[in-house]
Amino acid sequence: MAGILAWFWNERFWLPHNVTWADLKNTEEATFPQAEDLYLAFPLAFCIFMVRLIFERFIAKPCAIALNIQASGPQIAQPNAILEKVFTAITKHPDEKRLEGLSKQLDWDVRSIQRWFRQRRNQEKPSTLTRFCESMWRFSFYLYVFTYGVRFLKKTPWLWNTRHCWYNYPYQPLTTDLHYYYILELSFYWSLMFSQFTDIKRKDFGIMFVHHLVTILLITFSYVNNMARVGTLVLCLLDSADSLLEAAKMANYAKFQKLCDLLFVMFAMVFITTRLGIFPLWVLNTTFFESWEIVGPYPSWWVFNLLLLLLQGLNCFWSYLIIKIACKAISRGKVSKDDRSDIESSSDEEDSEPPGKNPHTATTTNGTSGTNGYLLTGSCSMDD
User: Which residues 6+ apart lie within 8 Å of 377 measured at CB?
Assistant: First the structure.
């Protein structure tokens, strides 16, 4: 074990040439980031998760009720033992051959059976109230942490001149504000890493998992080798759009469509400007070129920059989705349904009549959650 630890913490990987871990030990004159500081993130992640539960129960839920957001979910499928057995034991997405067999067995038309399976799948999805509470929690946290980041950074020299991220590197002391900012962000993303398995499931679950993992690795890497100054720039920059997204989603769930559209436009502008403009021209410029000039490359430097490039790849993917939604909005006159929506919909999905042999007699609606559409939900900070 000692040999493995010695290999993992090899100074030639983590630190610039001629720098050792002994050089970065805490003294009475200066405090530096220590790897063991990061253990604090785990109990804090649990505390953040508990705060979230309390917030959603006693703050977000009353707000949702005050906005007339109901706890009821999608329409309940008509009880049917045969279809229920197929759904639970065989498949939730029957193919055409199985649908025809069920149609003959039940004397139902295929379209009604398809509708039943859609409704049954949607029964397992969370209600609009649950979605609102999740978005309100994330909105509150993102707004707080972004505000804190701005207040902290405006007093630092590296916000105004990024070369200060590398002057006297790695002998840059760790301040209390910077330590709090880093541990808070790391704790939040650890809480997301675990809670995403119980949160609302969406089509880009795998991408979000990769995003959270990359974010945690970036925070960890930049803290251990004391790249925390540039790390704070990444955190604050990429947090800037997240609160707008969650606000737009809350407006959407509350059926304030004009407000939703306005907030979504603001979110799209901020997201694309920060992720595709400022991030590569400001952050990647300093991590690749200014740091190369002032400090020079070393192994963990390469890993850190590769993680930043991976994060930028995710930024490009989400920007594509945002532009796609915006194009649909222009043609339809409102923010369109999120391509990652976890509620299925079609023109006949929410028929109010029970399944039968004459589906053309049933009335139809256009949605499944009582809202006007779904927004992109990828809060992608080093986030998302």
Answer: 202, 245, 249, 338, 340
Q: How far is CA 282 from CA 34, 77, 166, in A?
A: 27, 53, 14
Q: Measure the CA–CA gap between 10 and 348, rounded to whole angstroms.
A: 61
- Write down how long the chain is: 384
Encoded tokens for 196: 């995403």
Angle at 311 between CA 305 and CA 317, to 5 degrees: 145
Identity of residue 143: L
Which residues have C-beta within 8 Å of that of residue 93, sequence separation ≥ 6?
A: 117
Ramachandran sector of residue 174 (left: φ over 0; alpha: ψ -120 to 50; beta: rest):
beta
Token pair of 130 as six digits: 């649950």
Helix (H, G, I), strand (E, B) or coil at 185: helix
- Report CA-CA distances (Å) from 286 to 129, 233, 357: 43, 11, 66
| pLDDT tens digits along 147-200 | 999 999 999 999 999 999 999 999 999 999 999 999 999 999 999 998 887 776
Give residue 39's Cα distance to chain centre.
23
User: What pLDDT score does 335 carry?
Assistant: 56
153, 228 Cβ separation under 8 angstroms: no
Name all domains of the chain by residue range, CATH numbers in brackets.
31-66+127-331 (no CATH), 81-124 (1.10.10.60)
Q: Who contacts 118 (Cβ-Cβ below 8 Å, separation ≥6)?
A: 344, 346, 349
CA distance 280 to 274: 9
Task: In whole angstroms, give the CA distance from residue 76 to residue 368.
Answer: 11
C-beta atoms surrounding 121 within 10 Å = 17
41 or 70, which is more confident? 41
3-state secondary structure of 329: helix
Determine the Cα–Cα distance for residues 273 and 180; give it in Å rounded to an integer. Answer: 28
Q: How far apart are CA 141 and CA 184, in angstroms?
A: 10
pLDDT for position 340: 47
The 3-state DSSP composition of the chain as helix, strand, coil percent (nearest 5) reads: 65, 0, 35
